[in-house]
Amino acid sequence: MQLNSDQIKEILPHRYPFLLVDKITECVPGQMAQGIKCVSANEMHFLGHFPQQAVMPGVLIIEALAQTGAVAILSEEENKGKLALFGGIKSAKFKAQVVPGDVLELNCEIIARKGPVGVGKAKALVDGKVAAVAELTFAVVDPS
Q1: How many domains does the chain have?
Q2: Beta-carbon contacts of residue 58 (< 8 Å; ≥ 6 apart)
Q3: How far apart are the first and last CA of the chain?
Q4: Catalytic, out of 9, 14, 49, 123
Q5: Cβ proximity of 18 and 9 under 8 Å
Q6: Tens digit of pLDDT per residue, the chain (144 long)?
Q7: Which of 26, 8, 29 is nearest to 75 (CA)?
Q8: Which domain covers residue 34, as residue numbers?
Q9: Is the pTM value of this prediction over 0.85?
Q10: Is there a cis peptide before residue 57, judged by omega within 30 degrees of 0?
């Protein structure tokens, strides 16, 4: 299953400037999702990170990965309309800078689940090279 930005917005509550996935290129509900983020020089965080040498903040790369994983979880029929919240970030490593003009390839595979809590193995690549990896814990909750 592929999703454009409008279809992603039907699943995720995030909106500009915090929707960090432009397209889902593959998704198996409850199991995995792959997506892309086209990194643009016009993004707000580049005003201060850093004015002389724009670098995408690592926390935003992790957030983009989490949003990709959230699409996999929230596209399951029983989770439609729910939220996926961060429960933890483990073993995050940043291997390369992400700069304007890069296309960030986002991959998140759900590797464990127990009730509403789960874990995703996430990897971000640029031009086939690893930019970041992490293990992301999430909790699926009803919005209040």
Answers
A1: 1
A2: 92, 94, 132
A3: 29
A4: 49
A5: no
A6: 999 999 999 999 999 999 999 999 999 999 999 999 999 999 999 999 999 999 999 999 999 999 999 999 999 999 999 999 999 999 999 999 999 999 999 999 999 999 999 999 999 999 999 999 999 999 999 998
A7: 29
A8: 5-141
A9: yes
A10: no
Pair of tokens at residue 2 = 């592929």
Question: What does the pLDDT read at residue 144?
Answer: 81
CATH number for the domain spanning 103: value is: 3.10.129.10
- CB-based contact 102:129 (threshold 8 Å): no
Quote the tokens at residue 101. Answer: 């003009």
User: DSSP letter string over 71-133?
Assistant: HHHHTSGGGTT-EEEEEEEEEEEE-S---TT-EEEEEEEEEEEETTEEEEEEEEEETTEEEEE
Active site residue 45: no
